[in-house]
Amino acid sequence: ASQIASEFPGVKGTKIIDRDATARLLEPWLGTGLNIDELPVPRLVIVTIDENSPPDFAAMRAAIAPKLPSAALDDHRTWVDRLVAMARTTVTIGIAVLVLMLSATVLTVVFATRGAMA
To answer: Model pTM?
Structure first.
């Protein structure tokens, strides 16, 4: 998988995570002294991409699938898109609250001025 991914344009580099590093990653949940061979833990390959010209992930999946049918390519698009949507919603709500607050302030000043002048 590492070799296939590194052949795509837009890939800066690949790194295979060894068994010891995988055990260290799982240590907070499964404890120390973990024997990776006893668990169905997948091997991880970290692919570093060029942000200016990212690779074609669909083509990469298509190239990996016939050679490694059990491999899965996770580009984190789903949770990144959800996070971006949540951030945009939060900003929109904040701007709406600010507009409502400023409108209430202006209306309060207008009615207070009109009441004082009457």
So the answer is: 0.61
Ordered by start, the domain boundaries in the chain are 2-75, 77-118
Query: Using one digit for the tens of pLDDT, what is the confidence trace for 15-33?
Result: 999 888 888 888 898 888 7
* CB atoms inside a 10 Å sphere around CB 20: 9
- Cβ(23)–Cβ(36) under 8 Å? yes
* Single-letter amino acid code for the residue at 59: A
Position 8, amino acid = F
CA-closest candidate to residue 75, choices 22, 11, 17, 9: 11
Instruction: Tokens for 84, please give them.
Output: 């971006």
Structure tokens at 86: 């949540």
79-100: pLDDT as tens digits:
899 999 999 999 999 999 999 9
